Amino acid sequence: MDKNLLKKLAAEKAVEEIKDGMIIGLGTGSTAKFAIEKIAKKIREGHLNNIYGIPTSKRTEELAINLGIPVMSLNEIYLKNQNSKPIDITIDGADEVDTDLNLIKGGGGALLREKVIAQNTKKFLVVVDESKLSNRLGKNFSVPIEVIQFAFESEKNYLKSLGAEVKVRKNENDEFYVTDEGNYILDVNFGEIENPAELANKLNERAGIVEHGIFLNDLVDSVYCSFHDGVRIFSRSNSGESTRNEFHADGRR
């Protein structure tokens, strides 16, 4: 089955959780785009009402507006709703998902806003196809790390000192890729990451690193993964434990 079709199946399945009156976090990337298109279609057809979207990037905001989804900023939502997590559901993709539901995100360059939206969301739904499954993070994808321009070379050297291979992200014109917040991105290959939480804490403590693409499983409620024979949902239990040990590294169930 075509990979885009697999992405679409997972995204549209997750959209079924959206109800009237919800505030929805709108992810960035090719899989999230299918979810946004489905949400817009349901709004046009009258199947979803009183919906507002909170985009995770400028290009997602532009897409949502063009498709007719009402959008608000996170700041606007907090002025109306002082709850600690005012966003009902966020649907977003991932570059890699491990057996504990930890994620690598940021291939689309929106990792900072994506993590901000995720931590302000009651229910964070991740949509992927089976090619994104991995026994350990870092096996198939580097970790995007957003750094301030002022400390760019400093952070490169620091990450190399951790034994990682560091690549500067460039745009299509071979210029430095600049995020929506005006920062640079380093794509960092740590190899297979044995302890994502430990690495995340180390990166969190480093001045100059704005954000990194390791999303620990305490942010994730469910992963909607499309296989060639259908969509399967992997969720954390109420205790925070995941049921993801049921898949193999190659995506077989």
Describe the structure.
The protein is of the alpha/beta class. It has seven helices and 13 strands. Strands 2-1-3-6-12-13 form a six-stranded mixed beta sheet. A four-stranded antiparallel beta sheet has the order 8-9-7-10. Strand 4 and strand 5 (103-104) form a beta hairpin. The longest helix is centred in the first third of the chain and has 15 residues, at 30-44. It is globular and about 55 Å long. 45% of the residues are buried. Residues 248-253 have low confidence and may be disordered.
List the helices and strands and how they pair.
Blueprint: H1 3-15, E1 23-26, H2 30-44, E2 52-55, H3 58-67, H4 74-80, E3 87-92, E4 96-97, E5 103-104, H5 111-119, E6 121-129, E7 143-147, H6 152-161, E8 165-168, E9 184-189, H7 196-204, E10 209-212, E11 214-215, E12 222-227, E13 230-235
Helix pairs in contact: 1-2, 2-3
Concise structural overview:
The protein is an alpha/beta fold.
* Structural class by sheet pairing and helices: alpha/beta
Ends: how far apart? Answer: 17 Å
Mean pLDDT: 93
How many whole angstroms does the radius of gyration measure? 18 Å
* Spans where pLDDT lies below 50 across 5 or more residues: 248-253
Question: What helical percentage do the residues reach?
Answer: 25-40%
Determine the number of helices (DSSP H or I, runs of at least 4 residues).
7
Question: Secondary-structure element order, as H and E?
Answer: HEHEHHEEEHEEHEEHEEEE
The profile of the biggest β sheet is: 6 strands, mixed
* Range of strand content: 15-25%
In one word, what is the shape? globular
Q: How would you write the strand order of the largest sheet?
A: 2-1-3-6-12-13
Give the strand tally.
13
